């Protein structure tokens, strides 16, 4: 359960090497989170992520998890909840893909969609059911501003995030009135290892800024969080740009 400061005592990060996931874990540990589960493919990077969090004073366990293997999700994630209550689940895994390559490689494009959408639907439903069974908790889903409208530059990635965004909104509606809270987070361009070498876009943010927004959103029990907040108005305007004109914009 959350402590007197409103911080979760336990956190499950799906995407255990995610820069945003780790930044969020560092913030919650500073606010008295004592148990962190990092779920991801076994790797030196996952082990290093766990070791870095242990130096902050938390107990950290790694969980073997593959978004592209939905058949294993119920067993692997169910074991986490069987070991004790989880106050917050952060669904932070995802891949950007390579738009230029993926357009001519349907298998690679399907891998982006399978990771970002199909894998997230499976993991999200497993965790939502477990949160309901324990009677409390929050599920935080990392979407993207790219989910708001298709862009020539990243429509494969954007379409996968759009599907995830709608799924998470619907799941939140399905759980409304229960003690389980679903929050959708829509960051803009995030400066991180995953975006190195890519042209920076307006309203760029950092993993730490996204983590701060997640923490505030959980405290307020928000349903949707934009990072930075100005993107809410920007995307509302862009959404209504006529399509012939939109095609000509440098997006």
Automatic annotation (TrEMBL):
Keywords: Oxidoreductase
Descriptive protein name: SDR family NAD(P)-dependent oxidoreductase
Lineage top rank: taxon: Bacteria
Sequence similarity: Belongs to the short-chain dehydrogenases/reductases (SDR) family.
Single GO molecular function: oxidoreductase activity
Alphabetical list of InterPro entries matching this protein: NAD(P)-bd_dom_sf, Sc_DH/Rdtase_CS, SDR_fam
Gene3D superfamilies, sorted: NAD(P)-binding Rossmann-like Domain
Keyword Transcription regulation: no
PROSITE patterns in the record: ADH_SHORT
């Amino acid at each position: 359960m959350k402590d007197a400061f409103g911080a979760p005592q336990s956190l499950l990060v799906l995407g255990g090497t995610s820069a945003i996931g780790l930044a969020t874990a560092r913030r919650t540990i500073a606010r008295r989170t004592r148990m962190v589960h990092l779920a991801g493919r076994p790797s030196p990077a996952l082990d290093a992520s766990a070791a870095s969090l242990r130096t902050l004073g938390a107990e950290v366990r790694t969980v073997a998890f593959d978004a592209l293997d939905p058949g294993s999700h119920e067993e692997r994630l169910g074991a986490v909840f069987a070991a004790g209550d989880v106050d917050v689940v952060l669904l932070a895994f995802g891949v950007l893909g390579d738009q230029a390559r993926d357009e001519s490689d349907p298998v690679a494009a399907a891998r982006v969609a399978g990771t970002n959408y199909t894998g997230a639907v499976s993991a999200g439903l497993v965790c939502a059911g477990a949160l309901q069974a324990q009677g409390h908790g929050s599920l935080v889903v990392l979407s993207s501003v790219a989910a708001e409208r298709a862009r020539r530059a990243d429509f494969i990635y954007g379409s996968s995030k759009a599907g995830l965004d709608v799924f998470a909104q619907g799941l939140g509606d399905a759980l409304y009135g229960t003690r389980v809270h679903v929050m959708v987070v829509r960051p803009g361009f995030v400066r991180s290892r995953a975006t190195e070498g890519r042209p920076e876009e307006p309203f760029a943010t950092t993993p730490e800024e996204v983590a701060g927004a997640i923490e505030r959103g959980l405290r307020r029990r928000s349903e949707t969080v934009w990072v930075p907040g100005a993107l809410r108005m920007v995307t509302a305007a862009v959404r209504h740009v006529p399509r012939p004109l939109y095609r000509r914009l440098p997006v």
